[in-house]
Design a protein that fits this description.
14 strands, alpha/beta, Rossmann fold, about 45% helix, about 400 residues, seven-stranded mixed beta sheet, 12 helices, 2 domains
Length: about 400
Amino acid sequence: MPRALSPILLALILLLVDRAAAASPEVPIGAVNSLTGAFAAQGTAIHRGILLAVEEANAAGRSGGRPVRLLVQDDEGRPERALAAAERLAGRDGAVALIGGYVDSLVGPISEVAERYRTPYVATASLDERLTHRGYRFFFRVSSLDGYVQATVGFLREVVHPLGVALLSANTPGASQLAHRQKEALDAAGVPVLLDDRFTPGLRDFVPLLTRVQAARAPVIVSNAFFGDHLVLVRQLRARRLGLTAFLGTFGMEFPQVIQELGPASEGLFGTTAWQPGITAPGTEEASRAFTEDFRRRFGEPPPPLSMHGYAAARALLAALRAAGGPADPPTGEALRDALARVDLRLPMGRVAFAENGEPREYRRVVIQIQGGRYVVVYPPDRATGRARLPAFQQEDGR
């Protein structure tokens, strides 16, 4: 007959059992970003913003009573890899939510998987309007075309007053839709669109396009293209005498590498941004400084602008997790989806809240100009820290 346990040993066992029961298992969240490949710089910036938000929440106990475990997948900038990563995370790994994504060719496949598994997905950089017109219930994003249209068209209409505009756009869904929306708004404002042309991202020779700009006699170029394309385009523009008044690049011009790579050739260029160090939504200055300091301490460098998109999306997801979950059980996809629909935060990027179709209720960008080797906000007036300098484009020989 086995001996009965001593009272002390029994008490110790019960204590250990209680502690084990009280120890909340981790909640898995799947992060899919381009950590290698063509979009590695952008994907890494987004990923680090997500990671910082998760680490902050775990340290402060702000994730619904259960620590969050980030399951990281690299899509390598390839749609088929993004699809496979989402399948693995939502299926085999049991992630309660997905987050990440830089371009819509990668975001789209992930959103399809998320809807099929009824797993909420918060896209960190997405513009394709078709993605929020499908009636999907589990798709959310923190960016939208509206912010780009309002900033670029408002700036041209109210500050530049051009006699005409040339629209040069990458032939991606988001850039093409943006050009269409810009043309509609410029036409309505009485600003002639003298050229509306598309090109393949990664183009190395813009001379044929620039020849068409010259033939159209457009004094302003609006380029809906990516960071790398802008570097090539600006270098080739500087070598030609087109008589431009201004060059406005909608994507990627806010990256500090523009100034580093182009040097004096970056002077006077216009771009847009939602946030970057020193440029933040009114009333969030202290939060912005704290984020910048924490990011630099964690990763050894200043935060790139896109890192805030990752941080904001993760903060929204973590707030929903806190509202929907608890220490006992992980939230269901439906509960987490409903909690995301109720999120309303004020962050350095601005207000983060979602409409019924998953679009952000607010997404504001400002127009910046490179002046004296630094970024100055020149539009809209309520955010401006300086005046736009026009004309703002010269050829390399200064003429």
